[in-house]
Amino acid sequence: MSNEQTELSLSEKQLASQEGTNLPLTSLEPLHTEGNKLRPTMQDVAEMAGVSLKTVSRVVNKEASVTQATRERVEAVIKSLGFRRNDLARNLRQGQTSSTIGLVIEDIANPFYSQLAQGVEYVARRYNHMLILSNSEENSQREREQVSALSHRRVAGLLIVPAGSDHSYLKSEMERGTPVIFVDRPPANLDVDMILLDSYGGSYTAVKHLLCQGHRRIGLICGDPSVYTGSGRVAAYRTALADWGIILEDDLLCFGCDDAEKAAAATQRLLSLPHPPTAVFTTSNRISVAVLRALRGVTRRLAFVGFDDFELADMLPTPVTVIAHDAAEMGRQAAELLFARIQGDERPTQRVIIPTRLIMRGSGEIPPEG
Asked: What's the rounded Cα separation, in Å, for the pair 279 and 151?
């Protein structure tokens, strides 16, 4: 008699004796329901199958030291109960990482970040990993809290769109072996891989395009100029004007306009100037949408170029000229680099720049009036 056969309990023998009755296992009541709880445990499987907890563990972990008859019986009970192994708890007990990766972004409601997350999730599926997504809401404290929560869940790696200004707190987690990739913005006080957009190059192209149409008074409607993406786009605007010998006029600059109401107010302020701009450059998709809404009913034609493409931009009465990029590709490249690090890639720190391109649709080609 094998060691496995010595583990048969009286209940297991009783189950075995019913094989000739053609009674399906689903009709058998569990021997231990604990108040009919909705999520069956390994103990429930063991008692219903009439075997030890260790035997169920061996079946679940596909160990060889189980007889075929017992394996089939336990697997049938697992199927009938709908039991699923808690891989996260198992990995935590064993000090291992889970088959998950974490992504901390600013706001999933922003199409840019939802497309980025989609690209990450596509790659994670290929590596048989689940993606855990979290929003920092552009709050540095929340970013740290979300990273801490993900780390406690032993994610295999982290992708972060940073909100904070100091990321040295991640050093201890990286020293424990967790790869970290920064996306869209670089980290502060941390040497780590990053995947960034060509914010400066794309913005320079946008302003240059308006200059080439004959515009000399170009309004800028921007979000927070202190964040990496904002500062790069503002710097490109300033440099493009300087390269064309145009003196920068502060009344054409509008900052802090990520909020739709503030972007609309900035638009109205620019239009009410004694010498209003003949063109506007906006630095994000959300600002572009808010500005276009504010321009409804305005009779004077205003040239317009926005950073980021957005849904229906090509369907408006005057289709919108944009600086476009592939946010999903950005996510895919970030995830590929993360999994390379997870698998032991020891190349020097990588800095990958995702290119942008100008899409001319009409709004950016409107000539200045007069």
From this structure: 47
